[in-house]
Amino acid sequence: MKAARYYDRGDIRIEEIEEPVVEPGTVGIDVAFCGICGTDLHEYLDGPIFVPPAGHPHPISGESAPVTLGHEMSGVVYAVGEGVDDLSIGDRVVVEPYIIRDDVDTSTANHAYHLSPDMNFIGLAGRGGGLAEKIVVKRRWVHPVGDIPLDQAALIEPLSVGYHAYQRSSAKTGDLALITGAGPIGLLTAAVLRAEGITVAISEPSPLRREKALETGVAQHVFDPREVDVVAEVRALTGGRGADVAFECTSVQPALDTLFEAVKPTGVIVVVSIWGHPASLEMQKLVLKEVDLRGTIAYVNSHPDTIRLVQEGRVDLKPFITATIPLDRLIDDGFDTLINRNETAVKILVQPGA
Length: 354
Hints:
- The protein has 2 domains: 2-155 and 317-351, Quinone Oxidoreductase, Chain A, domain 1; 162-295, 3-Layer(aba) Sandwich (Rossmann fold), CATH 3.40.50.
- The strands form 4 sheets. Strands 3, 5, 6, 9, 10, 17 and 18 form a 7-stranded mixed β-sheet that branches.
- It is globular and about 60 Å long.
- Helix 3 (156-169) crosses helix 4 (184-195) and helix 3 (156-169) crosses helix 9.
- The protein has 10 helices and 18 strands.
- By secondary structure, the chain is an alpha/beta fold.
- The mean pLDDT is 96.
């Protein structure tokens, strides 16, 4: 089968590899769609980060580069292994793409399994990936999505990132949230916040992405930071108080600086983006305003609730899909667009079987 294989920074190849084998306790999935994630771009430009470098196998998967990429996937079950009796061939599913040690409690009772030692991700540290025609995944990480269209279902994974970030923020109905960055994660975080009754303001320089935030209704207020004083605008919206919560979704230093100025005293800043470089922090601003700075990584027991948001019609994922491409065009029409012309796209999906 065809697969996109990550060898090293700037080196991703479309190759023919062996199809995976369905074993007891696993599920075979024909991949329908796989999104290109910002993490994939970071691996291509700055990596390896999550990908284990060649000759340095990951302690759980035992794999190192080259590995198959892709962790934002949807598909259809084509086989179930022995012991899997709650999924059937033909079911539409998505993958919660974790690689976690077998002795870690991954039940709903554990809200920290995603922070366990050596945690990594399918599609980054091995065990196949969504940028391939087929994948085999342990049953624990497969979630049925019912009648959600498969292209939209490929956005469940990044939407779960937004849902977990919302949970980390402790935001509540009636709060005002400021988001820096209207890329896929920023927009999908905004979608979750709006579904939960939170007022959303977004700072974003790209005209297309600002327009997408407004036309989808995920933000009531959208600012171009090159044209207006975002901090002043937020204070005007809040009677001088500042934003209750804020979400950093850019990995850009000026955006983080803006949030420290824009949040109210005792406000919460959640850093959602993956930083491939060190950031600087003026500690006195954190201290004097008693700002609560929180990290968030991926999701934990988030997929079922996130799927329900879509099934209940509280979040519409269709408008965020701006292009669908075949696997052979991954670099030219996918990575190149998102790296060099990211103001023209939001979420690009890949059809490995096309």
